[in-house]
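Morning F.,

Quick status update on the modeling queue. The single chain you submitted on Monday has been processed. Sequence for confirmation:
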Amino acid sequence: MTREIASDPATEAPVPAADAAALVDDRRDPAEDPAGSPAVIDGVALARLYGEPLFALPQDLYIPPDALEIFLEAFEGPLDLLLYLIRRQHFNVLDIPMAKLTQQYLAYVDQIRTHNLELAAEYLLMAALLIEIKSRMLLPVRKADTGEEVEDPRAELVRRLVEYERIKLAAVRIDEAPRIGRDFLRAVVAMELSVAPRHPDVHISELQAAWNDILRRSKLHTHHRIARTELSVREHMSMILKRLQSARFVEFADLFDATEGTPVVVVHFLALLELTREGLVEITQAAPYAPMYVRLAFTAS
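Structure tokens below.
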């Protein structure tokens, strides 16, 4: 949407070739000529087109009348144009000089009607409202039948302008806030995490509680026969290893046979502790207070 288009009725004819060449040369970017070469090379070049010297003018050069348009301002609607005219001339928004404002507004509408009739329709509606307000202000003021003071015809327009300006300033502040993709970019780092399950460590108190439970059950099978028995820790270590080779996991309590009596259970427990110390077996637990399991700590070759 355009605010103001500078046009001249005198330009409704084709531009001469010499003037067109001058315009092409004036629009040359100085940054494209760092060496500062002269506009005329060897006294032949007449202009520059895209940085290249133009030595002869085209014979069929023609510029349409509406090819050169200067877009000075861009408005977002009639209220934006009114607010621009008011602020540019430092008018008091609460005491708008309707005659001068309407004249300037209509002058702008006349310009855009010649170029974009669809765009001008929205502005014509506001022009009709301004003319109505101006006409009402020229009429003598009559008091209402209730004795109350008559409302200013400009009150509704002032309210809309103040509200529009407030929203526009808020939009500017929001636009100035940092925006992703425009002011900064979001850092994205791809990481591959391989989390290995970590079983909880067996606490000494849990091992002691499991051992006390085995002793309690072994005492239920005590007998009064007294006999001397020679027990070997190494032999029981071999028994435990053979038992674990046939199963991947064996529950801690299943390694002990309570019917053999307390001495055998004690030696068997000592053998298990010795295997654990030597790193041949491991005692694991899936979760706190869960049953403990015994497994081999190596893979047999």
